[in-house]
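Example protein as discussed:

>
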Amino acid sequence: MTKRFITICVLTMLILTVSGTTQAVPTEVTYVNGPQDPLVIPEYGLHELGNQNTTLPTGGPGIPLPVPFPDNEWITSTWTETLLTSCFEEGNADLPIPNVLVYITNMTGVPWSDVWYVADVFDIIPDGIPMETTLTNHDGWVNGGLAFKIDNIGVNRPLVSESMNPDLVFEPGETWSFIIQDYQNMWQLPPSAFGSIGVGFLSGGEPIFSSGSIIAIPAPGAILLGGIGAGLVGWLRRRRTL
């Protein structure tokens, strides 16, 4: 029985690993730290999370629909204005521009241990890379876009709430709310628009699909635990048929 269980778990983990790799959105980033909290983004194992569908207008004939994010990188998102402030430090001072509170819900089935927000960049002007989305509570830049880690540690504390455990782990089914301070977008897009694949100046598709990106790394042992759980379920089902 023990050997059979171990075999099932190993096979399940291999299947999950292969399927997760084929479904994952390739995510490449370079980052520069700013005057606030360090970004510290790993070189490998990074995923971009986003919307599977968009409610934004298509803009008329000839504009393609966005490529949907796969199930293992799917979040839902909404937003509202807020009077809350994330960062009062010099250089990131709150301006007389409305702040927004963004809500993201983890639909991936995977827990994420580190999560960042990255603003989109409008990259067509020859003499520079203007910001498509601007904000004032940034920790630095990712692929040219203003960025911050979504947490409540340090000087910049954008994370307002976790609907499950207050452990800074974005758990499956959990909703986080976080502040984007002095949010503005040149296309008047909502701050919850995460509908196109790509980060910063690599954000693909038409501008109407995305104002920013959510990037994250899986919690340690997430694939292993998922494999063990799936293997256990399969073993129990088999036992019932014997």
Notes: The CA atoms of residues 196 and 210 lie 6 Å apart. The first strand starts at residue 31 and ends at 33. Confidence is low (pLDDT under 50) at residues 4-22.
